[in-house]
Specification:
- The chain has a single domain, classed as Alpha-D-Glucose-1,6-Bisphosphate, Chain A, domain 4 (2-Layer Sandwich), CATH 3.30.530.20.
- Helix content is 28%, strand content 45%.
- Strands 1-2-8-7-6-5-4-3 form an eight-stranded antiparallel beta sheet.
- A hairpin with a 6-residue loop joins strand 3 and strand 4.
- The radius of gyration is 15 Å and the shape is globular.
Length: 165
C-alpha cells in the first residue's frame, strides 16, 4: 500500500446527514465489488471484534440485503437494506433500517448514497447517509463514527490482500 489516502468524515446535524469521503489504493472494479458483494462485505464491514453474516442479498433495484453484525458473545444486530437505485460501477442507493431476526424493520431508517470514481488506480468512495430522524442520528452517531472508521480500515486491509499490492 502506498501513502495514506484521503479521508473525510463530516456530520451535518441540521441536515441529518453524515458524509464520508474515502480514497482506496485499488482499482474501481475491486472497490465496487467490495461494496456490493455479500461475501466481501462480510469480511470488512464488521468493526473488530464483531463479525457479520449475510442471510441473503439480491443486488438489484428493489432487491434486498438482510444481514447481522454478531458480537463475540453471539448477540446479533440485524439490518435490512433495500436497493433503490444502481448505476453499475459509479453509484448505488439503499434504504437501511435496523430489524429483528424476522426482517421486521425498526423505523425510522436512513438513506445511503454511494458514489464511486477512479483516477490513476485510486478509487474515491463518497457515502452520504441521510437519517430520517434527528433523534435516531443522535443516538447512534458516536458508535457509527467509530465503527465506520474501523470498517474502512478493514476494507483497506482486504483490498491490499485482494489486489496483491
Amino acid at each position: 500500500m502506498s501513502d495514506p489516502v484521503a479521508f473525510d468524515f463530516a456530520v451535518d446535524k441540521a441536515a441529518r446527514t453524515v458524509t464520508i469521503t474515502r480514497e482506496f489504493d485499488a482499482d474501481l472494479s475491486l472497490v465496487w465489488d467490495a461494496f456490493t458483494k455479500a461475501e466481501l462485505l462480510d469480511q470488512w464491514l464488521p468493526p473488530h471484534p464483531m463479525t457479520a453474516k449475510t442471510k441473503y442479498q439480491d443486488f438489484q433495484v428493489g432487491g434486498k440485503r438482510f444481514y447481522a453484525m454478531v458480537s463475540p458473545a453471539g448477540e446479533e444486530r440485524w439490518a435490512l437494506q433495500e436497493y433503490t437505485a444502481i448505476t453499475p460501477k459509479t453509484n448505488f442507493v439503499l434504504y437501511n433500517a435496523f430489524a429483528d431476526k424476522d426482517e421486521n424493520a425498526e423505523l425510522p431508517g436512513s438513506e445511503w448514497n454511494y458514489t464511486f470514481s477512479e483516477q490513476n488506480g485510486t478509487t474515491t468512495v463518497r457515502i452520504s447517509v441521510y437519517n430520517e430522524s434527528f433523534e435516531r442520528m443522535e443516538r447512534i452517531l458516536e458508535g457509527f463514527t467509530t465503527g465506520m472508521k474501523m470498517s474502512l480500515g478493514n476494507l483497506d486491509n482486504l483490498l491490499t490482500t485482494l489486489s496483491g499490492r
